[in-house]
Write a structure and sequence with these properties.
With 208 residues, the chain is mainly alpha-helical. The chain is built from eleven helices and no strands. 9% of the residues are buried.
Length: 208
């Protein structure tokens, strides 16, 4: 119904007209006005039992994603799929895909920031200072760069190097209760964030 009737097969036009109890004169109509098209869309929406997506629905969807899917998942595609599934189960007409993807990206950013804020507030000052020190350069590199360093091919020296890194990481015990509530998928997404960003960029991501 959002396209010109002339582009629709005749049998499909006849079926829609019969199902929606529309005037039979529309069968031979090749073009319709914007008002006619709007009326047909309303009839189809009512026939399918669907409601139009509005700003209030999108705000509710965003809040729902922040509390649920975006708080557990780190993949934008998974969040988008959850948004589409919710709208379909509620019989709400899907908005433009760009609107859904933008909303999901915003929900994911807010959920991540909320988790970072909770983590930051759950750590004592001494732990925070020690973690911040990882991002301070002692020359050309930071301690964080050392932890991110690629070990290359696996061999005895490389294994010893990894064991040394793990031992150093073990000196930063993080026993905040909020950590136990993070899903493996969310932890993986944070790990990927650390891998992609350098120390200076990560410093800007710290909770205020």
């Amino acid at each position: 119904c959002r396209f010109s009737p002339g582009r629709m097969p005749l049998q499909l036009r006849m079926r829609l007209i019969d199902e929606l109890a529309l005037p039979r004169s529309l069968i031979s109509t090749k073009r319709i006005s914007r008002t006619q098209k709007s009326n047909i869309v309303k009839d189809v929406r009512a026939f399918l039992g669907m409601t139009k997506c509005n700003n209030a629905v999108l705000d509710q969807l965003r809040d729902r994603l922040i509390q649920e899917t975006a708080a557990e998942e780190g993949d934008i595609i998974t969040v988008v799929n959850a948004a589409v599934a919710y709208l379909r189960t509620q019989f709400i007409e899907l908005p433009a895909f760009t609107k859904i993807s933008d909303l999901c990206a915003k929900a994911l950013n807010i959920a991540d920031q909320n988790l970072m804020d909770k983590l930051g507030s759950a750590l004592d000052q001494n732990t925070c200072d020690r973690l911040d020190a990882l991002l301070v350069s002692t020359g050309t590199r930071t301690a964080f760069d050392h932890f991110k360093e690629d070990i290359g091919s696996a061999g005895p020296k490389e294994i010893l190097k990894v064991l040394g890194q793990l031992e150093q990481i073990g000196q930063y015990p993080l026993d905040a209760p909020v950590l136990g509530k993070l899903t493996r998928r969310k932890i993986d997404s944070f790990a990927l964030l650390g891998w992609k960003n350098n120390a200076a960029e990560l410093d800007h991501l710290k909770p205020g």
